[in-house]
Amino acid sequence: FCAAYDTTEAVREQLQNLIDRGRIRKDALQLISVEKIAGFFRSELGMRMCLAAKEGRLKKEQPFVIGIPYEEVYKEEDITDSGETVMVQGIIDAYFEEDGQLVLMDYKTDSVKEDVKEELTKRYKAQLMYYGTALSQMTGMPVKEKMIYAFTNGEAFYVE
Q1: Percent above pLDDT 70 for the chain
Q2: 73-115 pLDDT, tens per residue?
């Protein structure tokens, strides 16, 4: 399955297929880094996701809505138990089952000049925490890993 995407030529062919089917516009190709996409499919995370897809264990673009206690969302503020709930909604980029647990992953294309892992973790740690909570509630399965794949530098890393 994924060997079809791990070279720049293969990615170009797939993109042309999407253009031919009217799924993306031809001028969008200027915005797409073919090498970065191929690099993702060659990465360890990309290969794990491909295996999960081949075996029917990969889910993509999963929308969710979850209620989080107000004081959990606003931890920095000195708030006592208000009993209020904050509704958090989002779309999980992808997740897959592995050994009876889930791996949550989020793609990021942010332009980062300093330490990519540190900066993206700082920006998105809370988001992934909420996504993991929602995913566990939706599936009844524990989330064993929360990962970010940074297209900026082709790095996949865990977010604790």
Answers
A1: 91
A2: 776 666 666 678 888 899 999 999 999 999 999 999 998 888 9
Distance CA 67, CA 89 (A): 9
For the four alpha carbons of 116, 8, 29 and 53, in that order, the dihedral sign comes to negative
**Spatial distance between the Cα atoms of 151 and 157, rounded to a whole number of angstroms:** 12
Residue 68 has pLDDT above 60, yes or no: yes
151: tokens are 């297209």
Sequence-distant (≥ 6) Cβ neighbours of residue 29 within 8 angstroms = 15, 19
d(CA 68, CA 83): 10
Closest CA to 122 of 156, 69, 159: 159
Residue from 24, 31, 56, 62 nearest 143 by CA: 62
Cα 50 to Cα 13: distance, rounded to the nearest angstrom? 18
Question: 3-state SS of the chain?
Answer: CHHHHCCHHHHHHHHHHHHHCCCCCHHHHHHCCHHHHHHHHHCHHHHHHHHHHHCCCEEEEEEEEEEEEHHHHCCCCCCCCCCCEEEEEEEEEEEEEECCEEEEEEEECCCCCCCHHHHHHHHHHHHHHHHHHHHHHHHCCCEEEEEEEECCCCEEEECC
